[in-house]
Design goal:
By secondary structure, the chain is of the alpha/beta class. It is built from nine helices and 16 strands. The longest helix has 31 residues.
Length: 341
Amino acid sequence: MKKSICFIVFLCFCLTVVNSDYIELRAFLDELDAVMEWDYMLDTGVLIKNTDRIVFKIGAPWIILNYHKKVNTPGIIRQQGAVLIPQQTAEVIKEFFNKPSQISYYRVAAIVIDPGHGGKDPGACYTYSVGGKSIKVAEKDVVLQVSKYLYEMLSKKYPNKIIKLTRDNDTFISLEGRPEIANKIPTKANEAIIYISLHANASANKKARGFEVWYLTPTHRRELIEPAAYDDEHKEILPILNTMKEEEYTWESVILAKDILDSLNASIGNMTENRGLKEGRWVVVRKAKMPSILIELGFVSNKEEALELNNEYYLKKLSQAIYNGVCSFTEKLEKSKAFME
């Protein structure tokens, strides 16, 4: 073990001597008091200090400042297992990190609540006989009521954020049109949007019941970067930026989904079944260019649960639970600078 350590120290020493115009990455991170995230698939790294980010790719003659500005520099290289930074590149990085941060803090700027179905599309719909009376439970009505409760609570909690419903009445909106409402909300570099789509479930198995939360399958590829927003010099970095953005949104979607699932479980887990986190390619989440999830509140095909979903008290419990999960996620994102630290 001691021989191995000595060999590593000796190797690093040799590299420092042979490459006097370069700085070894680990030593450079210590000097900057910065941290790094690494993507093995892309062979790229992200240097992180406070709210600022620098992206580099091994062998590429550029670095990217805060995911937007490309700066041409001598390429960062790998030699005998060590990542080496040219002195010229190191000076650019130091200057950037030593300036006052261009991004003051991260915040959730908007929360979009999407009540599924509506209008001519009732979604899952069942009618039950209770005490000689017929009670119709339609998915579009259930999710709209929960969405309205949620909207009211979030609007009071966050008066400085945009809280938006894709519909606030019995109106039909196309699947593609729903996430587009969220996509059109303008944001700054340090701002995020959350997209939450609400639905109710149905099954041929009348005993099926419970809530579940879905996020987009991580392997699904989306175009999140708008090429028109970049000049020709930046075109080569767009695939890298797009992939990094996808990974960021996937991670944030999973955290949001988990926070809401845990909150639902704490609120109604003793009344129904927790069906867990799931991943899929729902249109409304794969078309959303932001962290996005889909919640199935329960099964309208299960008579007992359908009657609960027709009960105002139960719908308010669902709304409160989702609200708690959203607030938990928002607090974590804004305190952790987009989960990067």
